[in-house]
Amino acid sequence: MTDPRYPAKPRPGDRVAVLSPSAGLPELFPQPYELGLRRLREEFGLEPVEYPTTRKMGATPRERAADLHAAFADPEIKAVIASIGGDDQITLLPHLDADLLRANPKPFFGYSDNTNLLLHLRSLGLVAYHGGSVMVELGRPGAMNPLTAESLRAALFTSGEYELTAAGASGDVNGPWDDPRTFDAEPDLEPAGGWAWHNADRVVEGDGWGGNLEILSWLLMADRAVRPVEEYAGGVLFLETSEDMPSARDVYWILRNMGERGLLRQFPAFLMGRAKSWSFEKRFDAEERERYRREQREAVLRALGEYAPDTMAVFDVDLGHTDPQIVIPVGGRIRVDGPARRIFVTY
Q: Each residue of 32-68: pLDDT tens digit?
């Protein structure tokens, strides 16, 4: 596979597309969405441009694909940012025009269900960006998390190497978006224990590949946006789990099956996101959250021990469904320095 291309970056004052390639949740929850748009304008200096399905729940995959094509084909649009995720973006992939996307590269930002598009763009030879949704990170109550804002700004506007910073505090518990009081103050954070390292005896530098674990499992089942495993040799795998909070058993099963496919052993380094350990359906207390995160880590280590025992792993990296959230380049370079306990990405 050829080296991926970094699309040209926007500049302050440029127009950027805001799309809903998964769910049109801005229709149901306008407050975090409008807040995210305002911050794009006022704090990042960008002009968001909406499309017919951006605020439309129930849009068909073909309609959402048409908006994506329109945004990529428009020379005035300098980046594409997802409003939020969802659960059916995989149905969008058959409607995408690979030649159009490849001929009009744009930085694309999103995560969760947007793992579908991120890995699709990577399969076309383009670098994309895992992180930075309008409704969640830009629309965070009170203010953007400073670490999130710093990473997103660097990924949007700059090139070159960026060092990740381990968060001193992180948050799991969210307020309901349909209650205006949610937006009166920032979410509560609790002390974070930093990163945990495994097999940290070398330096690994390679292209990043991965995303949300649950969505990746669907892509593997459907055999979409995944290249032959040998093409990932030497890369850096990164994974994270969502507010669906899969059990440790399910996490192990997914990784086991990736191991059986020969995927895990291709990656000499692996970043695992800090597990999302609270949802409205599973309102865990502090002790339950810690147990959930510990059991997930043990499941990952079990799979690595069986299928990739030499892989260097870093746990509790603030990527994915985390607060703060660091943007990770899909297809971009990642350098994991085990002896120095440092991680760098190239935006």
A: 999 999 999 999 999 999 999 999 999 999 999 999 9
CB atoms within 10 A of CB 199: 17
Task: Extract the tokens encoding 79.
Answer: 């980046």
> Of all residues in the chain, what percent carry a pLDDT higher than 70?
99
Contacts of 93 (CB under 8 A, 6+ apart): 116, 120, 224, 225
- Assign 45 to helix, strand or coil: coil
- Is the backbone of residue 29 left (phi > 0), alpha (psi -120 to 50) or beta? beta
Q: For residue 299, how many C-alpha atoms fall within 13 Å in the half-sphere facing its CB? A: 20
Q: Cβ contacts of residue 90 below 8 Å, gap of 6+?
A: 116, 215, 218, 219, 222, 224
d(CA 120, CA 89): 11
When the candidates are 2.60.40.1220, 3.40.50.720, 3.30.565.10, 3.50.30.60, the CATH number that belongs to 163-346 is 3.50.30.60
Q: Which of 278, 268, 275 is nearest to 300 (CA)?
A: 275
pTM comes to 0.97
Task: Tell me the DSSP string of 125-156.
Answer: TB-EEE---IIIIIT-SSS--HHHHHHHHHHH
Contact 319, 328 (CB under 8 A): yes
